[in-house]
């Protein structure tokens, strides 16, 4: 019995000790929690909103500064958000590229459908208003044997079988740099400089600009037309190889600035899409010009059709037979005539067939003159409008003014660098050269 009582006593003592231990631990935990709470809320449990906000902004460090842990937390958050932003920008860029590719595919699909109808058996005209003729001619079969080196280069540079091509020698180096920097700024990578001398070829390589070195001889007929016009006349001959290789080209003079991706604004439904020298709907797209000859009495008025010329400094040309024939015609005439290449370009595009002459059957489209701007539109008209600061052109061609480089730099300052007075010093037009 005594042993049993001793065992009961021992167990009772152990239970009492365990109970006291638990109480002690609970008290110790309570004190610890109280100390932590007090350090986090030095102003008490019930705090005014003002004091609480002060605690949130100041109660992390001894001098009202956030603690190291808080700084590290914010830095980590900024880093994560920056990574997310980069990811979103990349995804958005990819979406834009996919959208552009889809646009090209849809345009090619529609063109192929029309070509298929034309190549099929003869068909009835159909109901009134449904007859549509073919405007999008079929592309030629590429022939890489004409220039294997260029064919390999274009495989790396072109996107969707199209690219911007500029032709330059070392005399226009400064303008060329402004030109390709504006292209790079809008994210276009499918562009190429055709370098006519070693200096400009090396200059492009130094600036990581895609370049193709090409020798070209100015014809005797073009030798005294001025450097710019002589080089401009060469482009029709040089472009031929691009088209024969199966590539569409946005031919661009180097006095042109890019502010948006031009490939997003092309229709690709004609052989040639060109910017215009016109400055309103009538001059850009055509109008009825009435001639008045009073000596004819009742028949004194004669109606004529007028349109301002296509600008041969910026045009998109597809690899079709009519397009290549256009280049051949212009090249042939410029090799024999002392003529302005832009005038010849338009004559071959627009002159109809007549006795002794067979007209070119090339389809053509005028680019939107409010997006693909000439410099007359900019300096004489648009800059005087109240909302000009918010205007976002696709391209601006400084074709109406001889002080090209200065105006190009000023346009970059205005549209890119936000200098609202950058254009103020330039007159609408330009002074006549001194004689």
Automatic annotation (TrEMBL):
Keyword Transmembrane helix: yes
Cell compartment(s), UniProt: Golgi apparatus membrane
Protein name: Glycosyltransferase
Keyword Coiled coil: yes
Membrane topology: Single-pass type II membrane protein
Organism the protein comes from: Sphagnum jensenii
Main location class: Golgi
Coiled coil stretches, renumbered: 71-115
EC number: 2.4.2.-
Domain of life the protein comes from: Eukaryota
PANTHER family the UniProt entry points to: ARABINOSYLTRANSFERASE RRA3
Top EC class of this enzyme: transferase
Similarity remark: Belongs to the glycosyltransferase 77 family.
Nucleotide-diphospho-sugar transferase domain: residues covered: 188-406
Alphabetical UniProt keywords: Cell wall biogenesis/degradation, Coiled coil, Glycosyltransferase, Golgi apparatus, Membrane, Signal-anchor, Transferase, Transmembrane, Transmembrane helix
């Amino acid at each position: 019995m005594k042993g049993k009582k001793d065992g009961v006593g021992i167990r009772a003592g152990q239970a009492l000790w365990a109970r006291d231990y638990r109480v002690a631990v609970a008290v110790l935990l309570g004190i610890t929690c109280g100390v932590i709470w007090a350090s986090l809320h030095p102003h008490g449990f019930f705090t005014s909103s003002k004091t609480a906000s002060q605690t949130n902004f100041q109660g992390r460090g001894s001098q009202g500064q956030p603690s190291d842990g808080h700084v590290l937390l914010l830095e980590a958050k900024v880093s994560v958000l920056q990574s997310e932003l980069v990811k979103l920008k990349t995804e958005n860029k990819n979406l834009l590229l996919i959208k552009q590719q889809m646009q090209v595919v849809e345009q090619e699909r529609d063109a192929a459908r029309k070509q298929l109808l034309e190549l099929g058996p003869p068909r009835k005209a159909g109901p009134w208003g449904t007859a549509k003729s073919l405007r999008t001619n079929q592309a030629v079969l590429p022939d890489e044997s004409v220039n294997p080196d260029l064919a390999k280069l274009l495989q790396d540079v072109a996107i969707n079988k199209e690219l911007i091509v500029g032709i330059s020698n070392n005399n226009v180096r400064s303008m060329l740099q402004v030109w390709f920097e504006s292209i790079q700024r809008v994210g276009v990578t499918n562009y190429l400089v055709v370098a006519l001398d070693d200096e400009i070829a090396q200059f492009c390589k130094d600036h990581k600009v895609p370049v193709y070195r090409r020798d070209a001889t100015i014809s005797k007929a073009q030798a005294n037309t001025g450097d710019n016009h002589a080089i401009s006349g060469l482009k029709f001959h040089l472009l031929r190889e691009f088209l024969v290789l199966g590539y569409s080209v946005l031919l661009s003079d180097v006095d042109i600035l890019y502010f948006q991706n031009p490939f997003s604004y092309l229709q690709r439904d004609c052989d040639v899409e060109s910017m215009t020298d016109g400055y309103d709907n009538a001059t850009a797209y055509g109008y009825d010009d009435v001639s008045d000859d009073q000596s004819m009495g009742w028949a004194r008025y004669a109606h004529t059709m007028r349109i301002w010329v296509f600008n041969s400094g910026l045009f998109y040309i597809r690899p079709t037979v009519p397009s290549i024939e256009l280049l051949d015609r212009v090249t042939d005439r410029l090799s024999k005539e002392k003529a302005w290449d832009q005038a010849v370009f338009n004559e071959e595009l627009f002159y109809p067939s007549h006795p002794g002459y067979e007209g070119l059957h090339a389809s053509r489209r005028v680019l939107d003159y409010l997006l693909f701007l000439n410099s007359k539109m900019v300096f004489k008209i648009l800059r005087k409008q109240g909302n000009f600061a918010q205007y976002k052109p696709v391209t601006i061609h400084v074709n109406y003014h001889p002080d090209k480089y200065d105006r190009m730099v000023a346009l970059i300052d205005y549209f890119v660098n936000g200098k609202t007075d950058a254009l103020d010093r330039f007159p609408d037009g330009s002074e006549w050269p001194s004689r």
